[in-house]
Amino acid sequence: MMNQDFINTLLLTGRLAGWTTAILFVVGFPIAYLLAYKRFWFKPVLEALISMPLVLPPTVLGFYMLVAYSPQNAFGRMLSEHFNVRLAFSFEGVLIASVLFSLPFMIQPLQNGLTAIPKSFRETAYTLGKSELTTFIRVLIPNMVPSIITAAAMTFAHCIGEFGVVIMVGGNMPGETRVASIAIYDEVQAMNYHTANQYSFILFIISLLILTLIYSINGKKKIFF
Amino acid sequence: MARKKSSFNMLKIDIQRAMLTSEGKTNLEVSTEIQNNELLCLFGHSGAGKTTLLRILAGLTKPDKGRIVFNDTVWFDSEKKINIPPQQRNVGYMFQDYALFPNMTVEKNISFAQKEKNKDDVDKIMDLFDLETLKNQHPAKLSGGQKQRVALARALAAKPNVLLLDEPLSALDFDMRLALQHEIRKAHNLLNTLTVMVSHDLQEVFHLASSVIMLKNGTVINEGKPADVFTNKQNTAYHNGYNI
Predict the structure, then answer these.
(1) CA distance B40 to B45
(2) Which B residues in the span 111-140 are in contact with A, Cβ-Cβ below 8 Å?
(3) Which of the residues A24, A69, A132, A187 could staple to A87 if both were Cys, CB 3.0 to 4.6 A apart?
């Protein structure tokens, strides 16, 4: 049977994935818009930085985050002295790392969605007197709903499966940083294969459902028009 | 929709802009004046600079230098570094692909264009272009001719100072083109202002235009009334490959 610890771990996993997706949704849209429509000299660098989590071992980002959070360094010291905040081995610390590590999963689908919309849509709206913001809200967003759902679902699914960054930055603290993927590793180490199997099965089903949702949406794009 | 009050409008254009065409780099250079009620047709081969000029007028493409003035308002002045954005030029621009917003119905596409919401005006425009029965349809369900009428109606709903049409009939078959030339004439008369239209269809030019600018590789090679530009064998048009 599922005990409270098991449920708490799953809830924490959902909370981390949910917050990461929500934060990235707000942060990701303006960045995706910039990358899709604006020209600036450091654009290739920004695109490369955002895509880094796709090729970088999660432990590398985790290591740098830990170094940044350390009170021995400027950022960590500033947080500690001025705000009395310590991010290492805390939920908030893991959340920030998770947001950074999931950036490409949110931004790339949004950027692709924006660039797929014909330029003439935006330009027509501008000639009709509409601002960039109005055009974005009334014309662009409604015509990229599948991309938005894909971006949110991919971010959520990726976050649920995240292991390396979380264990580096957050360790394995029940109720605080012990997410399902870490719990599986932990249970296997303790030879509790039954519990590990329960966690694994739930993650498997959730990921399968999310990916099925994405593929069914992308196969029926016109349903939104 | 009430016919616009008669007022004298003038658009003065004197611009230069570097262009990259399939034949290499060239310079678009146009200096002309368009006056009240004129329906000016920009005529020429692909890559001549017709669409670039139309985009420059709309504020969607920036000229390298020159000046564009509509009545007393300077839209662009390279020396004074003035470049009024498209939102403030109040032009009705119709793209080749019509650019109807797929998420909006015909009615919503038209009302979106209005600066001040007025349902009566939307109904009148829809009635004028025979769109009443289609008002709840989305663009994906419309034929090419229906899309063209919606795009024209939408451009008009904003009550623009200048109507800019980029090959408005190019996506349609011959019979439809003939039928819809009438709609363009209707839109132009209704606005009672200036219309600039890109075309490379002679029949269309003769039927609609009050004047023509013929462009070749970015340069104006002839301008005037269609009959003068196209039928006088002594003129440059005849010797520049537009043998009619």
Answers:
(1) 17
(2) 112-113, 115, 138, 140
(3) A69
